[in-house]
Amino acid sequence: MILIKLLLAHLIGDFFLQPQSWVKEKEKKKLKSPKLYFHVFIHIAALALLLWDVSLWPIIIIIGVSHFIIDALKLSFQKKKTKRKLFFLDQFLHILIILGCYFFSFHSVNKFHFRITENQLALITCILFLSIPASIIMKNIFLKWDISELTKNNQSLKDAGKYIGILERVLVFIFIIVDHWEAVGFLITAKSVFRFGDLKESKTRQLTEYILIGTLISFGIAIITGIIYTVLT
């Protein structure tokens, strides 16, 4: 239960309560940006609210301070070519700190019991992860390619791809946890049918590969998250 709360606080602080404007300002001003310190404060506040136990303040401080150090180092060394790699390294280190704090400290701590059950909290965490965080992860994966060159002279609804991705990942996750894998296959087939026209009309092999890679990554993230949830619960 405590580990899920720690992960949930990280998702909320790093993805849901960090606007893109903050990210851009931090990248521009680096350690001089007030948004960096607001960001760390939000993480500490989210941890405090979710854990709701004064005796856990050392863990909250450790995670908060380590988050600041990791983000500060990332901003200091980040360049355009290294942005994608440092994003994943940054997230890996944050999760590693959280896991370390849990396994080395929480085994002897009395847990505060919320009315919400562990399974419900795990479900909320998984669904939140499959929305904006998964979209940001995929966005960083695709920094390797220049999508503007692939979609030249072709218009699309603003943020349509992001919302389609969120919906498909949540649907796949729900299908898996209710043990209806055949529905996942149906969803993949339906998306392939809708995408067939775009792929057929596209003269660019790179765009076709881009779409296929994106679809497989999106479904893969949702499937793995669903499996992890069913195993843990």
Automatic annotation (TrEMBL):
InterPro entries assigned to the protein according to its UniProt record, in alphabetical order: Phage_phiKZ_Orf197
Record has Membrane as a keyword: yes
Transmembrane segments: 87-109, 121-142, 163-190, 210-232
Keywords: Membrane, Transmembrane, Transmembrane helix
Name this protein carries in UniProt: DUF3307 domain-containing protein
UniProt source species: Hyunsoonleella flava
